[in-house]
C-alpha cells in the first residue's frame, strides 16, 4: 500500500536521554510491518536533551522540566504530529498535564507496558518494578498495576539505591556491562521474593538487560510504547482512508 | 558546561530510510563528548519516509522527491533548526538546490567523508566508491574526489548490479548477512584493482560491513557526517556564547 504524503505523523517528545530516543526509534521501525522505506511510519522527533533532570526535579518538588516539555509539545504540533509518544518513563509524571494541553492523543508508556504484560505474562500476578526512584514515588506503574488487579513489588530502599539507581546511572555513563550485573542481581532478589514478571520501567534498563538471563519474563516498556504507536498509526491510516473514501 | 535552552539545534532531513536515520542518530550521540543527557546536541528529526525512491527518480530523470525534501526543510526551519544534515547519500543529488533555498548551512555527507578520508587514510590515492547507481551517475563522490587529487574507482556495471546494488537491496530487506557477503566480495575485487581505501557511499553499506574484514580501510560517510555535525555544533555554541558575552 502506498501512503499519501498527508499520512498521520507520530510526534516523539524525546531526548530524555538521546540514546533512549534512538532505541525507541529502532523499536518502532522493527515493530512496523514494511517492505520498503515508504511503508514506514512518518515521525517527527524532538530530541532536545536541554531539559532539567526529571527524577531530581520530581524528588525536589520542582516543576522545572514542565516549560521544556510544553515547548517540545508545541513544536511537534506545529510540525504536523497527530499523536505524541514520550520515550521516558519518569517524564510521565507530567503525562496528564501534557494530555490536558493538547487535542492530540498522548500515548502512555505504562498503559502500553501493562497491555503487553497481560498479553505475554497472563499468569503473572506479582510484578516487580525497576525504575527511577521518582517513577516509583510518583506511582506511574503502581497505580495502573493495582487497578488491573496485580500486586506490585519494588526493591527495598537499600537495593533501590545500590542496584537499580546505580545500574541506571552506569548505563547513562556508558558502562552497560556493569549496569547489567547490578540489575540482574536485583532481578534475582525480587524473583526470590515471589515476583513473576519484571517491568523494566526506565528506558536505560532494557538496554542493560538485553540478552541477560533472568528468572522471570521481563516487559520492555520502550518496546511496548513502540508497538502501541504502530497500532495507533494503523488505526489512524484506516480512519484517513475511510474519510478520503467519503469525499 | 550547562547549555542554554536556546542552544543551536541540528535539523535532520531523514527517513531515507528510517533505519539509516536511527543509525545516524546513534553515531551523533557517540561522537558527542557528553557526561550527561543535557550535554548532548539538541536535534529535530524529520523522519518522513513517504518520499519517492531517490535512486529511481534520478535515473528516470524525475524530480518527484524535490517537493518532499523542500517540505521537510521548511518543517525543520520552523522547528528552530540552525543547520541541516541529510543522512542519505543519494538525496545529495538535491543538496545544492536545498542549500539554495535556505539561509541555514546544509552539511554535505560527501565533503564530510572526504575530510575523514584525508585524516584517516593519508596515503590513499586510489579510492573505491560503493554507492547506489544514482549516486555514482550523479558523481556525488567522483567530482569532489577528483578535485582533491584522488583517483576514483568504481565497480564495473556487472559487479555494480550483482554485488553492490544487490547488497544494498539485501540490507534494505533486512538480510544483512547476505548483504555483507556480496559487498565484502566486491571490496576484495576493487582492492585487487589497486583501491587503497573504500568510501561506503550509501547508508546501508556501513550497516552491512560493520566488523567485516576488508583488504583496505573503509570510510563511513554516515559517521563522517555525524562528526561534522558535532564540529558544527561546537563552533555554533562558541559563537552563541561570544554573542551573549557581548550583550
UniProtKB/TrEMBL annotation, chains A, B:
<dbReference type="InterPro" id="IPR015942">
    <property type="entry name" value="Asp/Glu/hydantoin_racemase"/>
</dbReference>
<dbReference type="GO" id="GO:0047661">
    <property type="term" value="F:amino-acid racemase activity"/>
</dbReference>
<keyword id="KW-0413">Isomerase</keyword>
<dbReference type="InterPro" id="IPR004380">
    <property type="entry name" value="Asp_race"/>
</dbReference>
<protein>
    <submittedName>
        <fullName>Aspartate racemase</fullName>
    </submittedName>
</protein>
<dbReference type="InterPro" id="IPR018187">
    <property type="entry name" value="Asp/Glu_racemase_AS_1"/>
</dbReference>
<dbReference type="Pfam" id="PF01177">
    <property type="entry name" value="Asp_Glu_race"/>
</dbReference>
<comment type="similarity">
    <text>Belongs to the aspartate/glutamate racemases family.</text>
</comment>
<dbReference type="InterPro" id="IPR001920">
    <property type="entry name" value="Asp/Glu_race"/>
</dbReference>
